[in-house]
Amino acid sequence: MVRTPLTPEERERGERLGLLLRSARGERSMVEIAAAAGLSAETLRKIETGRAPTPAFFTVAALARVLGLSMDELVVLCTPTPAPALAPAPAPHPGPVPSAHPAPALAPAPA
User: Fold this and answer.
1) Where in the chain are the domains?
2) DSSP letters spanning 11-56
């Protein structure tokens, strides 16, 4: 089976999930949390470090249960916020465009 490359959004979401799980784990060990969730410590380490950015749903659900997190919290906290829309460029000015380097003033012609 060939895996398609992850999008930047998927990678960011995986990094957010890892940071959130690591924070929720606090002082508890990876081995303790992984065992309680029915996972290997290596799997938890990969999720926390972003090396497994798209873990299975039931893996995330088990970790959420053990860490006291709701799935709703995880969805909200792991979803990247959309970038603000760029403001449209201002309409061009209808008059002449002033020069950044105005021409020097001419001296009056001799009479």
Assistant:
1) 8-78
2) HHHHHHHHHHHHHHHTTS-HHHHHHHHT--HHHHHHHHTTSS-S--
Q: Which of 52, 49, 59, 60 is nearest to 22 (CA)?
A: 49
Which pLDDT tens digits describe the chain residue by residue (111 residues)? Answer: 677 888 988 888 899 999 999 999 999 999 999 999 999 999 999 999 989 989 999 999 999 999 999 999 888 888 877 666 666 666 666 666 666 666 666 666 666
Nearest to 47 by CA among 80, 73, 72, 74: 74
SS3 88: coil
Please tell me the CATH superfamily of domain 8-78, with its number. lambda repressor-like DNA-binding domains (1.10.260.40)
